[in-house]
Amino acid sequence: MDPRTPWQALARPRFPRSSWPWRAVGYLATGGVLGGAACLVFLVLGVFSLFLVGLPPLLLSGLALGGIERRRLRFVDLDPAPDPHRVPAAPGLAAWLRLRAGEQATWRELAYALLLATVLWPLDLLALAVGLGLPLALLSTPVRFAVDGQEAKVVKVYLVTSWPEAFAAALVGVLLLVLLAYPLTAVAGARAALARALLAPRESGQGDGIGEVIASRARLVDAFEAERRRIERDLHDGAQQRLVALTMTLGLARLDAPPGGPLADRLAKAHSEAGLVLTELRELIHGIHPQVLADYGLGPALADAADRSAVPVVLDIELPRLPVSVESAGYFAGCEALANIGRHSGARRARITARHEGGVLRLDVEDDGRGGADPAGGSGLTGLADRIAVLDGTLAIMSPKGGPTLLRVEIPCPVPTEDSAPTEGSASSSPRTASSSGRG
Description:
Elements: H1 6-10, H2 20-53, H3 56-72, H4 93-101, H5 104-139, H6 141-148, E1 152-154, E2 158-160, H7 163-179, H8 181-199, H9 204-256, H10 262-288, H11 291-296, H12 298-307, E3 313-318, H13 324-345, E4 350-357, E5 360-367, H14 381-390, E6 394-398, E7 405-412, E8 434-438
Parallel strand pairs: 3-4
Antiparallel strand pairs: 1-2, 3-8, 4-5, 5-7, 6-7
Helix pairs in contact: 2-3, 2-5, 2-8, 3-5, 5-7, 5-8, 9-10, 12-13, 13-14
């Protein structure tokens, strides 16, 4: 991994040959120039603002300098420095000024600007004079000796009177140029850390909070899937069995009733209604969480969905058992895609391709229909995209006018070990796959 800050670069063996020493020089040099200019500006603004128009010009100068400094951080800090200011809720200069005056970031920028204009820029120039000026002065000794002819004074201290002494001074300059690059870069890193702390502080707790939110959302998905499976089991083992018993009882009662009478007609109608309710309940159970998905995994479940599709489907599926939440999200994405193909696409054929490669489940559903699919048009894919996003996955639709349409789902997930693999129902411990089969 390439270093992102001077502190990371200093620990690398290749540091003297890298660009980081020159980055440090550029950062300190521009800091000296910018600080000197800021000193003059603040001297002028300090007199006129305090006695004539108050603090607004000082605040505005702090805002401007803060923006410049955040961009200048790119010299020695490759991580972007975001703008900490909020966007005003109302338009207009007055609303913008009220918001800026009430923000802590504005006052931090003003404090940094005053610090730069009074203390920091002389320190920047002093560090450059020692870390770069001294070695360059020694390196230039042979040139100055040749110009003067007989002697040359090294940094106003040592008098050089011969060529060997001049080249020895230049050699010392080369060594100092390399050695002083380390403290010079460390000074630039400290300056950049101070600037970032005041102008664009890294919200260390924010990343932890986001990570916890993502983890909690994943736990909610797992809990939701477990609840779906519990409801499916309760309906399958409870209500469905009672309806089966009721249907059988009504069928036996029809056999015992006198044929042709009103009782037989009522029993036949009740038997038919009970059969319809049983069929609808089975479809409802299948939609909640199909048993084939729990028992055999995503591959066979997609094959079962393809068999029930209104459009012939070609399958190219090679999948191991995956985490339950991933299999469920992939299955319902495939089912929703097939339902949309049957209702809206006018396609004659569809294709499902599913692979698990490089720790990512990739599911493609393609059809040869008219195209022009719009997820925002109520296709049901928006909710699926949100559900897949909880698993850190993506759902993309490519559907130009005239077709074809391709729906692609990608979900990062490891293959569970045998101990953690789904064992619900009668699932086999070995992976189940479906490949190159078709319908229609």
